[in-house]
Amino acid sequence: MATDCNAPPSWTLFLHGSEISRAWLSEEQALHIVLSAAAAMPSSRTDRTDRTEGYLSGVTWVLSGAQGQFDPSLIMGGIAEGHVTTQGQLLRQLPAPSHQTGPLTLNLRLISGTHLSASGHSLRVELAPSAVFRESWAC
Asked: For labeling, which of 33, 56, 86, 133 is most exposed (least CB within 10 Å)?
């Protein structure tokens, strides 16, 4: 079942289980990470009581002021483990859409074995107007 993602509510995204389709570093030192599928669930629902997990398309992470040792061309595939460290907190899930500010670090270990550790001064979680949520059929 598909859900309109641009209507309330917001979403909770899980770094583990999401899939990256591509990444690039802009001239402004912003690391753009486009997800082909973001592991997600609605943060709250008024029309139903369950919190069904599934996958959200149309999600991009933008890490501004990105610094670190990484090759954007190698950042693709499934995320085996990941977290954001900000203000002394370790976040394994992110609200969407959202904008985290302050010094932070994005750490990802991909299924391929590629590691990413990049620091920056803000992280935006953006939803495209065409974003769609699909319920997981995993048993």
From this structure: 86
Average confidence (pLDDT) over 132-139? 76
Phi, psi of 74 (to 5 degrees): -95, -5
Distance CA 105, CA 22 (A): 19
8 CB-near residues (< 8 Å, 6+ apart):
none
Amino acid, single-letter form, for residue 125: V
pTM of the model: 0.87
The pair of structure tokens assigned to 39 is 């592991």
Nearest to residue 133, comparing CAs of 39, 18, 20, 62? Answer: 39
pLDDT of residue 47: 46
Cβ-contact 45, 106 below 8 angstroms: no
- Residue pLDDT, tens place only, 34-86: 999 999 988 865 444 556 789 999 999 999 999 998 899 999 999 999 999 99
Mapping DSSP to helix (H, G, I), strand (E, B) and coil, where does residue 73 land? helix
Task: Please give the Cα distance from 32 to 42 (Å, whole number).
Answer: 24
Residue type (1 letter), 64: S
